[in-house]
Amino acid sequence: MGEKVGVLALQGDVREHAAALAELGAHPVEVRTPQDLSGVDALILPGGESTTMSLLLGSSGLFDPIAARLAEGMPAFGTCAGMILLATDVLDGRPDQRSFAVLDIAVRRNAFGRQVDSFETGLDVAGVVGGPVDAVFIRAPFVERAGDGVEVLAEVDGHPVLVRQGPLMAAAFHPELSDDLRVHHLFLGGL
Ligand code: GLN
Predict the structure, then answer these.
(1) pLDDT (tens digit, 9 = 90+) per residue, 153-173?
(2) Domain count within the chain
(3) Does ligand 1 have an atom closer than 6 angstroms to the CB of 138?
């Protein structure tokens, strides 16, 4: 490992992702400017609020450079709001909300409903050994449609919550909020 892995640091769970990466031997880089982005090998888009991040991606000047790197094949991992930012189709989004539209999924925001706004569960993840992964869901989305090229790695009640398409991975939950680093490890293993 030892790759420089950017964490989009406009809003959301930045420190927790950086800590997980460092613990696994990668070099986390907080990405706030296009210059920060140019030095990284891969990018994590954290959880937070996708509508706010969409606005901040515009005002920071990061939207177009990130879109260009993704088009070149930069590996990226979106968690929760980050999953929404990577999706080709956003359901229940705000009309002005933008996404990078590189991961061929339709994702519904806040899909688990208000009554279960937050929950924690053990997830069986394809390719991860050692028992269920501890997964924290906070006003989480889920995937309603996954394109042919998309592998579903984990589901909750039949809804995909962890997917991979080539160098792109996306989780509806927050792997950075538990001590279980196996999902980050899975992403880093693909770099
Ligand atoms: N519901 C949030 C959104 O639409 C995502 C929640 C999260 O990242 N924890 O952006």
Answers:
(1) 999 999 999 999 999 999 999
(2) 1
(3) yes
59 CB-near residues (< 8 Å, 6+ apart): none
The long-range contacts involving 188-191, CB below 8 angstroms and separated by at least 24 positions, are: 188/1, 188/3, 188/5, 188/21, 188/24, 188/26, 190/75, 190/164, 191/1, 191/3, 191/5, 191/41, 191/42, 191/75
- Which structural domain, as residue segments, surrounds residue 68? 4-189
Looking up residue 70, the CATH number of its domain turns out to be 3.40.50.880
| Total count of residues recorded for the chain | 191
User: Of 110, 103, 107, 90, which Cα lies nearest the Cα of 166?
Assistant: 103
The residues with which 77 forms a beta bridge, in sequence order, are: 44, 169
* 70-129 pLDDT, tens digit each: 999 999 999 999 999 999 999 999 999 999 999 999 999 999 987 667 999 999 999 999
Among residues 80, 151, 159, 185, the one annotated as catalytic is 80
Q: Give nearest CA residue, ligand 1 atom 5.
A: 81
Closest to 189 (Cα-Cα) out of 129, 101, 99 = 129
